[in-house]
TrEMBL record:
Pfam families listed in its UniProt record: Sulfotransfer_1 (PF00685)
TM helices/strands, residue ranges: 6-27
The family this protein is said to belong to: Belongs to the WSCD family.
Keywords noted in UniProt: Membrane, Transmembrane, Transmembrane helix
Lineage start: Eukaryota, Metazoa, Ecdysozoa, Arthropoda, Hexapoda
Species for this entry: Bactrocera dorsalis
Sulfotransferase domain boundaries: 113-275
UniProt-recorded name of the protein: WSCD family member CG9164
InterPro entries listed in its UniProt record: P-loop_NTPase, Sialate-O-sulfotransferase, Sulfotransferase_dom
C-alpha cells in the first residue's frame, strides 16, 4: 500500500514537472513573437517605422541645404508675395536680405507639371539645392511647408517654378513654360497609392490592397491610369508655351545630365559649386525607400492595360524631347 502511494506521488511529480516545462517553452517561443519577426522580415519597411526618417512630415526634416534658400528678384509688389516663416533647417532669406540674387530674373513663369507620384517633390528638392532658389506650388501642403518648401502656395515670379498636377486652360494660363515630369504609370500609381495611405515617404499597408476583396485597389488603378494619360497628353498636346519633357527614369539614371538640361531650359546660370553639392546630397529625405511585398498587387489584366497606355503616351512624348 505504501509502495503504491509512493509510486502515485512520483508519477504526479513527473507530470507536474512536464507541464511546467511545456508552459515555460511556450512562453519563450510564443506565436506572437514569431509573427512579429516574420512580419518584419516580409515587409522590411515596418522596421523603419521607429526611424525619424519615416515619421512622415509631422516632425522637422533634417535637411542640409547647399546654400541658404531665397526668392528671386521680381516685379511683383512685396505685399503680393506670400510671406513664409523661416525654419532653422532651411535658412530662408527674402529678396531684400540677399544681394546675389537681386540682379537675376527668370523670364515668365514655369510650371512643374506632373501626375502625382512622378517625383515632383524630389525634383523640387534637387532644384532648390542646385540654385538656392525657392520653388512654389499651386497647393498648400502643410507637410511640405514645414519641411523644406516654405514657398508652398507661392505662384508668382519670385520662385524658380511652380508645382501643379492640374491641366486645362485655367491651369495653363499663368505659365509661359512648363517642365512635364513623366514617370512609368505603374510606379507612379503605386507611389500615389502609398502617398494617400502613408504620406509623402510612407507606405500603404498590405491590407489596403485587399480592401473590399481587391475592388478598391482595382478602381484606384483604373481611375488613375486614365488620369495619368490625360495629365501627360493634355500638357504635351495643348499647352501653347514652351515645354520640356523630363522622364523620371532619366533623372534617376543620369541625374547630372538631366538636371543640367532642366537648368538650361529654365535659363538659370549653373553654379558649379552648388551643382556638385547637389549631386552629393541627391537623395535628401523626399524619396520613398523601396519596399517588398510578398504578393504582386497588379493583376495580369492591369499590367496589360498599363503597358498599352504607357506605349501610346511615351511614343508621343518621345517626339517632344
Amino acid at each position: 500500500m505504501i509502495l503504491q502511494s509512493w509510486r502515485l506521488f512520483g508519477v504526479s511529480v513527473i507530470i507536474i514537472i512536464y507541464i511546467c516545462s511545456v508552459l515555460l517553452f511556450s512562453i519563450n517561443s510564443s506565436p506572437r513573437s514569431n509573427q512579429k519577426n516574420e512580419r518584419i522580415e516580409r515587409f522590411s519597411e515596418f522596421a523603419n517605422f521607429h526611424n525619424s526618417r519615416f515619421r512622415g512630415f509631422t516632425s522637422k526634416a533634417n535637411i542640409r541645404w547647399c546654400n541658404g534658400l531665397k526668392y528671386l528678384k521680381t516685379n511683383v509688389p512685396n505685399n503680393m508675395i506670400t510671406t513664409v516663416s523661416a525654419l532653422s533647417t532651411n535658412k530662408v532669406a527674402t529678396t531684400e536680405d540677399t544681394k546675389d540674387n537681386a540682379a537675376y530674373r527668370i523670364p515668365g513663369l514655369t510650371a512643374l507639371a506632373s501626375f502625382p507620384g512622378s517625383g515632383n517633390t524630389w525634383l523640387r528638392y534637387l532644384l532648390q539645392q542646385a540654385t538656392g532658389i525657392l520653388t512654389g506650388s499651386v497647393y498648400k501642403d502643410y507637410g511640405l511647408l514645414k519641411t523644406g518648401f516654405p514657398a508652398e502656395n507661392v505662384r508668382n515670379s519670385s520662385v524658380l517654378l511652380v508645382k501643379t498636377h492640374e491641366f486645362g486652360p485655367k491651369a495653363w494660363d499663368p505659365f509661359t513654360k512648363a517642365i512635364l515630369l513623366v514617370r512609368d504609370p505603374e510606379k507612379a500609381i503605386l507611389a500615389e497609392f502609398n502617398r494617400q495611405s502613408g504620406g509623402h515617404i510612407g507606405f500603404a499597408s498590405p491590407d489596403r490592397y485587399k480592401r473590399t476583396k481587391g475592388k478598391y485597389w482595382q478602381k484606384f488603378v483604373l481611375k488613375n491610369l486614365k488620369m495619368w494619360e490625360a495629365t501627360n497628353l493634355s500638357w504635351a498636346r495643348d499647352f501653347s508655351g514652351n515645354i520640356k519633357v523630363v522622364f523620371y527614369e532619366d533623372l534617376v539614371g543620369n541625374l547630372e545630365g538631366t538636371l543640367r538640361g532642366i537648368l538650361n531650359f529654365l535659363e538659370f546660370p549653373i553654379n558649379e559649386e552648388l551643382f556638385s553639392c547637389t549631386l552629393i546630397r541627391r537623395e535628401g529625405v523626399f524619396r520613398r525607400k523601396k519596399r517588398f511585398l510578398n504578393f504582386d498587387p497588379f493583376t495580369i489584366s492591369m499590367r496589360s492595360m498599363i503597358k498599352q497606355k504607357k506605349l501610346e503616351v511615351y511614343k508621343y512624348l518621345e517626339n517632344l524631347k
